[in-house]
């Protein structure tokens, strides 16, 4: 579906397409404000709510600022529970995404050139990621992205972290102060095997699951600043802020971030067959 000038709206017609597996919605790239005058891009997405059987959703060049209601209310797990693949590309207006973590069948998530995206998940709009009863930290009370196998993040220059309120291993307490939250207690991705992260300079940490075997990391802010060296030097060989100590499966690493490599525990290299250090 290519959105262009003169879209008449009406909506509701995709809700009955139960045999439609794939939807690709595209706006003209680089469309100027004058060309879009009179078109409410948010209403367009609102009208294009797919049937719950949909398996692949691709949205490109969406210039709107708001997420449609069918993606917010109860999250996509309620409206599109059968999604297997999501691609969002050149959607410059989006600062956050709908809640994706409870999609039971999602295997591939590609977020490409979302220039204003700041966080992947908004805790306020999704299920509680789990806090201990004494408020001391975050616990793994739920499995997030239970089927996700491939994560591709490309050119997200404002991305700060996965969850709003959690950055650099800290979360905001009820009084607004920062509290340490160990990354090992964050909900992890049990089947995530391929992680590609490029040009995400503000991203300071990533939750890596126990099954990651391929990691590409270029031009990111992960373990990059000088003060991190003190943290790295104090870690034991089996401890790393971004790495599960029980993860011996990684086979391929490609990165330009030597400090990230130095921050990994020795156990991370046990099955390594390919390492590339250089420019993307």
UniProtKB/TrEMBL annotation:
Coiled-coil segments: none
Ranges where the R13L1/DRL21-like LRR repeat region domain occurs: 14-111
Domain of life: Eukaryota
Record PANTHER family: DISEASE RESISTANCE PROTEIN RGA3, LEUCINE-RICH REPEAT-CONTAINING PROTEIN 57
This protein's name: R13L1/DRL21-like LRR repeat region domain-containing protein
